[in-house]
Design goal:
Blueprint: E1 3-9, E2 16-23, E3 27-31, E4 37-42, E5 46-48, E6 56-60, E7 68-71, H1 74-83, H2 92-99, H3 103-118, H4 124-127, H5 133-151, E8 161-162, H6 169-186, E9 193-197, E10 204-207, E11 211-215, H7 216-221, H8 225-240, H9 243-262, H10 270-280, H11 285-301, H12 306-315, H13 331-343, H14 355-362
Parallel strand pairs: 9-11
Antiparallel strand pairs: 1-2, 1-7, 2-3, 3-4, 5-6, 6-7, 8-9, 10-11
Helix pairs in contact: 3-9, 5-10, 6-8, 6-14, 8-11, 8-12, 9-10, 11-13, 12-13
Bound molecules: zinc ion (ZN).
């Protein structure tokens, strides 16, 4: 097999190019549909990049333009693999990458400039963990205003936020008690904030910087306080892992990164894009599993009932965030539930709220 199809990213724009890939004598030739050669990579400079299963993703070593090529056809990927003497199956490159983690702190500034210049969304994943908490918080605040506006589609005259009317304040106090207990166990670098909104979906979401939205539908569907606490713990997992920040940086791209460099996020369409990302997209399965694992560990640490999260997840069909599909009988949901339950330790647990507080929380949107 001497040629095949691939998808090429030129590293300058985010456009995907359908390309023909040919195995030349000493190099891989990447050409567009009209036969123009877009890149010519010597075999000894090919470098494997991390990719999902069944995709061969390669780049060129030391290439500052950050071009990459993806090959989906297994047979052709194998043929490329055979030629590419540098594609390493022994883990040398991975070991080297681990060794360079320290260097990333210094490289962060350079990366930010690179992203700003080249607009490479993939770098968001690497930059997010390096952002100072104060900057992340500013980013979150800007997105928050927009998120609230997009979610608030209710009739005028009804308060969008629950827990503010006199009859709802006991519910808010109960929620605060629950969140403080989780927060004390979590030890996040910044304070967590939360808002309950009058939306019927059983959802929650976390914004960059630690603002957690809890939808009324989630509290309505829950049968005890630990079920609500479990979902909030899952959202705290996304905050701790900076998943929202990564998603927003990827979606907002250039504008946010320029904004970040200039210390001003507000203004421009980037905030709108970011809020849409938060509301419409979903995280990867890996990010969800990591948030589940975090939530289970946090529930254990806080003395709550880990199994309550699994129960709640089953009841709401696995969709803890607005962008997720409801997969009631889906193996993915079942696998998540099983994984969470494995974390449940035998210790006795203390309910997050007593009966009276729980009743108050159930009425947090009643006013
Ligand atoms: Zn999640």
């Amino acid at each position: 097999m001497q040629s095949g199809a691939g998808i090429f990213f030129d590293g300058i724009t985010s456009a995907r190019h359908d390309v023909a890939v040919t195995l030349g004598a000493a190099s891989l030739v990447i050409s567009d549909r009209t036969g123009n050669v877009l890149a010519n990579w010597p075999y000894n400079e090919l470098e494997p990049l991390t990719a999902p299963d069944k995709v061969l993703r390669i780049g060129r070593r030391g290439n500052l333009a950050l071009e990459r090529l993806e090959i989906f056809d297994a047979d052709f990927a194998h043929a490329v693999d055979e030629q590419a003497i540098h594609i390493d199956r022994t883990g040398m490159i991975q070991r080297r990458q681990r060794g360079s983690v320290i260097g990333w702190t210094v490289a962060a500034t350079v990366s930010m400039l690179l992203v700003a210049w080249f607009g490479i969304p993939a770098l968001a994943e690497r930059i997010a963990p390096l952002l100072p908490v104060t900057i992340e918080r500013k980013l979150g605040d800007a997105v928050d205003v927009q998120t609230r506006a997009m979610l608030d589609t209710g009739k005028t005259g009804t308060a969008f936020e629950c827990g503010t009317a006199d009859s709802e304040k006991a519910g808010r106090a109960a929620l605060d008690k629950m969140i403080h207990r989780l927060e004390a166990a979590a030890g996040l670098p910044g304070p967590l904030r939360s808002i309950v909104v009058r939306k019927v979906e059983a959802n929650a979401l976390a914004l960059p910087g630690g603002q957690v939205y809890i939808f009324r539908g989630l509290i309505d569907k829950a049968e005890n306080a630990d079920e609500v606490a479990g979902v909030i713990a899952h959202e705290i997992g996304h905050v701790a892992h900076r998943d929202g920040t990564k998603a927003v940086l990827q979606a907002g791209g250039l504008s946010f990164l320029f904004g970040m460099l200039l210390g001003d996020f507000v203004g421009g369409g980037a905030v709108v894009i970011a809020a849409k990302t938060v509301l419409q997209s979903s995280y990867t399965r890996e990010a969800e599993s990591a948030a589940d694992a975090y939530a289970a560990a946090l529930m254990n640490k806080a003395g709550g009932n880990v199994r309550a999260l699994a129960t709640m997840l089953t009841r709401i069909g696995g969709a803890t965030e607005p962008g997720m599909k409801i997969l009631l009988d889906h193996p993915e949901t079942k696998a998540r539930v099983a994984a969470i339950n494995k974390f449940a330790d035998a210790k006795s647990t203390t309910p997050f709220l007593d009966a009276k507080e729980w009743a108050a929380l159930k009425r947090i949107c009643a006013g």
